[in-house]
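ok trying again, last paste got cut off:
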Amino acid sequence: MSAHRVHRAYRTRLRPSAPAQAQAQAQAGVILWVVLVMLLAMALGGLALLRSASTGAGIAGSLSLQRSATSGADLGLEQGLARLDSLYTSAADAMDSDNTAHGYYASADARQSAPDFDWDAGSVQATSDDGLGNRVRYVIHRLCSHSGAVDAAGQQCQQPQAQDCPGSSDMTGSVSHCRARPMYRITARADGPRGTVSYVQMNVY
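nice, full thing came through this time. structure:
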C-alpha cells in the first residue's frame, strides 16, 4: 500500500495593521461629514430659492393690485371733473359754499393730506366695484383759504401762474383772464382687494 501525500494549499489573508485600520475609519468618518454638510447646504439653498420665488410672486401680486387700484381711482377723477363742471355751470355762486352731497368743499386745508380726510362721511362714491374689485370715491376742494366769494376780504386762493389761458368759449383764439379763477383739486381714492388703497389727485381751473 502506497502512501499518498496530500498537499494542502493555505491562503494567507492579510489583515491591515491597527494604525491603517484606524486611518481608514477616520477617512470614512470625514467623508460622511462632508456629505452631510453638502446635503445641508443643498437643502438650505433649496429653501432660500423657494422663499425667494414666493417673495417675488407676492411682490408682483401686490404691484398688480396697486396698479389696478390706481387705474380704478382714475375713474373717480373723471367723475369728479364732470361733477365740478356741472356745479360750475349751475349758478354763479355755486362754488362759494360747500356742497357735501356732491363731495364739493369751497376751501382746503393745505396741512391735510389725502389719507387724513374723512372719506367715509365726506366723499362721493363713484362706484362700489369697478370690475376689478375696487371701490372708488372722490372729493373736490376749491383751493381757497375760506368759503365765500373769491374776492372776499381775507380770502386767499391758489390761482394759475399764467395771466391768460384758454376760455370756455368754443371760438378760436378765445382767452379769459385766469387770475379771476381759483384752482380746484380733485382727489380720488380706490380701495381694492387685500387692503390695497390708492390715491390720485388732479388740479384743474
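cool. The radius of gyration is 40 Å. The helical segments are 18-90, 119-122.
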